Amino acid sequence: MIPIRALQHYAYCPHRWGMLYMEGRWAENAHTVKGDLLHENVHREALLRSSGAGMAFGGVSLYSERLGIYGKADRIELLRCNKGTAAAGAPCAYRVRLIEYKPTAPKGEIPAAERLQLYAQTCCAQEIFQAPVEACMYYADTRRRVAVAFDEEDEAFLQRILSAIRSAQERGALPPIVLQKGCSGCSMAGECMPRVKTTNVREAIRRCLCESS
Ligand code: SF4
To answer: What pLDDT sits at residue 94?
Structure first.
């Protein structure tokens, strides 16, 4: 089983995923600390709210047998609704809504790695509740929820990332460093040093030998 967080890390950067999941390294920055504090708050209470309108739960464990993944939803709401689905174990019909909390709203589109995380969580919740699931991002800085709809491209991207992770695990080699836009906000940049060019000693000697012959 692959953690949903690992999917998100691999989609952000395969090398970062390798440092975390193959080498067990981790470094924090302001962005990761903000995110952790926000999630600690949301996950603190299992039952966040119960009213005539429905129930809200924090830090809900998720898994999918179909995809071989597991993780946690920040918040799941069961909203009482006549046309809803009778969720397993619930006394009446509900709509199921899943919410992922983020500290800051993106300037443009939702980043691919975050969208993948939300899609993977939604797939798990659909499998567990055997019902359609509404998915939202909640941004703490703007205090706004944004509904997210998925399509077949999200499923294809998830399958690509899953198979890339499984192949990387089989190879057992750390994926290479690729300098990219995300490097500037990456908490592992100090360990990875993507702007430092490494010298391939073997290649340098081979070149010297060729030039002197
Ligand atoms: S600094 Fe860049 S290349 Fe290195 S782990 Fe982070 S995102 Fe990946």
So the answer is: 86
Tokens 């340098």 belong to which residue?
204
Cβ(177) – ligand 1 distance below 6 Å: yes
Segment-wise mean pLDDT, segments of 10 residues, the chain, 213 residues = 96 95 85 79 69 85 96 92 68 88 94 97 95 95 96 98 96 92 90 72 56 57
pLDDT at 80: 86
The identity of residue 166, as a single letter, is R
How close is the Cα of 167 to the center of ligand 1, in Å? 20
Question: Residue 70's closest CA among 84, 60, 81, 56?
Answer: 60
Q: Tell me if the domain spanning 2-212 has CATH number 3.30.310.
A: no
Atom 1 of ligand 1, residue of closest alpha carbon = 189
Q: Is 192 in the pocket of ligand 1 (CB under 6 A)?
A: yes
Give the start-to-end residue ranges of the domains of the chain: 2-212
The reported pLDDT for the residue numbered 111 is: 95
Binding site membership of 182 for ligand 1 (Cβ less than 6 Å): yes
Residue type for position 158:
L
Q: Say whether 32 sits in a helix, a strand or coil.
A: helix
Is the CB of 136 within 6 Å of ligand 1? no
103-180-20-61 Cα dihedral, nearest 10 degrees: 40
Q: What is the whole-number distance in angstroms between the Cα of residue 21 and the centre of ligand 1?
A: 14
